[in-house]
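I am writing to request your help with a piece of structural work I have in hand. I am sending you one protein, given as its amino acid sequence and as whole-number tokens for its backbone shapes. Kindly check, if you would, that the fold set down in the tokens agrees with what the sequence suggests. You will find the record immediately after this paragraph:
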Amino acid sequence: MNGYQRVKEKKKAAIKNGAFSLFAERGVKDVKIEDIAATAGVSQVTIYNHFGSKENLLSEVIKEYILEKYEEFKAMLLDKKTFKEKIEAIIFMKIEAARLHPDTIAAMLKESNLNAFLQQFQEERFIPLLIDMFDEAQKNGEVNPAISNEMLLFYLDIFRNFPQEKFMALMRGDKIQHTKEIMQLFFYGLSVPPENK
């Protein structure tokens, strides 16, 4: 990579970082190209030259964010953690994702190309990792082997697909206590945990 290309990539990275911060904090509608340009320290023309539109920039930024979170998730699953610790890590990832502005999440789901990417990514990468995690937990005696992968995925989806805005409102309270309660509901439902009997 020559000097010109390095400068070009540096500017592109600054634009994406600035855009992500603004989208996460203020949503998509309230962020203008001029805001992103000011945050990134570049001209509006530079942004249009690199991305063409705010929608294309949003798409690229979100795809990178998802790939980054996927790599974190994959590394966490390969770590020698218990099934319970892995589920707790998934819940904390949900908490982190809930910090994104609701308008940004809505834009992600509305934009057809991005929505298709999310769907394909989930089916081809995320779900196979979850199934591997469940299989390992069943072999280790941490999860009931009589429960199918389909039912385990359905059960996890109940927690994963809880509306972001409601989840974020819940976490504005006692985050540590609420996380403990989510963990208890996940593993024991409404019954009393064995250690509390």
